[in-house]
Protein: Sec translocon accessory complex subunit YajC
Amino acid sequence: MDNLAQFAPIILMFVVVYFFMIRPQMKKAKQEKTFVEDLKRGDRIVTKSGMHGKILDFSEKNNAVIIETGAGKITFDRSSISMEMSKKMNEPVKQPAVKEKK
Structure:
């Protein structure tokens, strides 16, 4: 029992690290994977490097996506698509409430 008391702080530290660091990272990686898998033609995206475009086609052989930009067609790896920036770009724009004057 005395040996268990010596290792309790170390065990507690591993539990805290798991629930506050490892588990959220695994959850975020799973969300990004489902986001990339759910992409379809016509979706507007932003890459992690900041390139904006619209999906034209997928290349399953290279695990890549072909996007159309203002400069032309560019092929990017699927992992280079930013989930956060793409979701922000596709959100509907909220119009500020206009107050009526009397």
Remarks:
- The chain has two domains: 1-38, 40-91.
- The chain has a mean pLDDT of 87.
- Strands lie at 44-46, 52-59, 64-69, 72-77.
